[in-house]
Amino acid sequence: MQVEIVAGSITEVICDALIVNLFEGVSLPTGATGAVDTALDGQIATLIRGKQGAGKYGAISVLHICTGIGARQVILLGLGKQEEFTLDRLRGVAGTAVRAAQKVDARTVATVIHGAGQAGFDPQAAAQALVEGTLLGNYRFRSYKTEKDEVVLPEKLYIIENDAQKVPAITAGARRGETIAAAVCLSRDLVNHPANHMTPTKMAAQAAQVAASHGIELQVMDKEELAALPMCAFLAVAQGSQEPPKLIIMKYTGNPAGKNLLALIGKGITFDSGGISLKPSEGMHEMKDDMAGAATVLGAVQAIAALKLPVNILAIMPCTENMPSGYAFRPGDVIGSLGGKTIEIISTDAEGRLILADAVVFALRQGATHVIDLATLTGACVVALGNVASGVMTNDRDLCGKVLAAAGAAGERMWELPMFEEYKDQIKSDIADLKNSGGRPAGAITAGLFIANFVDGKPWVHIDIAGTVTTDKDNGYNVKGATGTGVRTLVRLAENLGTW
Ligand code: BES
Ligand code: MN
Ligand code: ZN
Q1: For the chain, which end, N or C, has fewer CB atoms within 10 Å of the first or last residue's CB respectively?
Q2: Cα distance between residue 384 and residue 418, in whole Å
């Protein structure tokens, strides 16, 4: 979808659907909505009088055939209570509005930046949120549908602004929003592709495309190279699969003089059957999304490079399947790891922490000064926080504060879980340095604590995205399927770091 900023009159713009808005409790529209109402001889005011709740958050009302204005039809969008309106609510209603435009077969859509004036938003930030919400809400994944899409996807978005002075800021915000939405959609695509298509080899090919088009250094290590290191824990997970594992390494240098190197590490299990500790078959198909951490990291580096942010990023994506076979590792096995620590395998289904442990050690050897990992790591995190928030664990208040602040600003919910000493007992092994499962109690925390053993005291934040990676319904800027969660937070974090 193309985005164009127009300094002009809302009533004159020629388009299939014009989106205007209403705060809850307002009976006589003002501003842009008021201007359209006047041009339509009070039809919007009539609609509001006849329909309760037109201003409720996310409400949609359509005036189908309009004369007296340039638009063929008008979509009235409820913004909810003015005092509750935030940038993320703006992002959400923009997504809802574009799907309403799909339903009325609109190819061209015009909109104002909803509520930005009344809520006192910075024009650039508001335009960014509007564009992100619109493009993310308009996302569809149709790679495997052979029949023509019955939905008409809007192709053009006009953002109408009557104050010409604001146009440069709005344009800057819109461009940023486009860049970030493209990265989130890349991440969604990778997650939505099934495991027979999105193999570790395919992940590496996708990374190569991103690297080539954004001038990012890329190295892909195969099984033999990993064995030479030796990345024993990663290879133990990979050994049951026919698909060759890949360690994808990308380096973006936005600040050559900078002393900091932020490692972004993403779990890339392209399919998690559980291995010999086989998962129940019900719901197993969802384990194609177990590479979402890697997909998030790839999306984030793409956007960070496209925005030319002055930071240095080391992106590490360990990619493999976790499969049962005669070659597979077993419960009870003791394996080594890149850092030298030995691990007793209690469950081959606790594989994510194994590949992350090796990836973390690898990142530190490459000079990483700070580490953030993202992973669909535990069902326990979904039990704790549901599909609403990602779980955050850390050994460093400062870095964690920065991550949580970035998440808040980007509109992604994250919540910290404690790393109390007492939990560590659960992953002590009788015969090795560690065991890979601490059992059911506090399962998200013991998984985080397992990884903490490998970070060598460096500032580290772990984000468990198991509950937030997909959604089962269209809602605001999310559409059923992969959400691309984490990309916006990482990009915002990199922005907030400044010259770092
Ligand atoms: N990939 C799963 C975690 C997961 C579960 C993600 C549900 C998304 C939805 C992970 O590899 C796993 O299987 N974790 C086990 C750990 C246990 C064996 C200690 C789990 O959560 O059950
Ligand atoms: Mn697993
Ligand atoms: Zn897994």
Answers
A1: N
A2: 12
Q: What is the DSSP letter of 149?
A: P
pLDDT digits over 448-467, tens only? 999 999 999 999 999 999 99
Supply the DSSP string of 51-64, one letter for each residue: STTTTSTT-EEEE-
Q: Which residues make Cβ contacts (< 8 Å) with residue 102, sequence separation at least 6?
A: 138, 151, 152, 153, 154
Cα–Cα distances in Å, from 155 out to 3, 110, 195, 241? 9, 11, 30, 42
Contact predicate 26/83, CB 8 Å: no
Task: List, in sequence order, every residue forming a beta bridge with 25; answer none if it has no partner.
Answer: none
d(CA 477, CA 479): 7
- The atom of ligand 1 lying closest to the CA of 290 is 1
Q: Which residue is catalytic, options 72, 91, 267, 353?
A: 353
Closest ligand 1 atom to residue 439 Cα is 19
Does residue 479 contact residue 140 with C-beta atoms inside 8 Å?
A: yes
Give 167's contacts (C-beta < 8 A, 6+ positions apart).
Answer: 5, 7, 161
Distance CA 15, CA 24 (A): 26
Q: What is the mean pLDDT of the chain?
A: 97
pLDDT one-digit tens code per residue, 51-72 = 889 999 999 999 998 899 999 9
Q: Can you give 273-287 as a three-state secondary structure string?
A: CCCCCCCCCCCHHHH
In whole angstroms, what is the distance from residue 418 CA to residue 416 CA?
7
Cα gap 139→149, rounded to integer Å: 13
Three-state secondary-structure class, residue 217: strand
All structural domains of the chain: 2-181 (3.40.220.10), 193-497 (3.40.630.10)
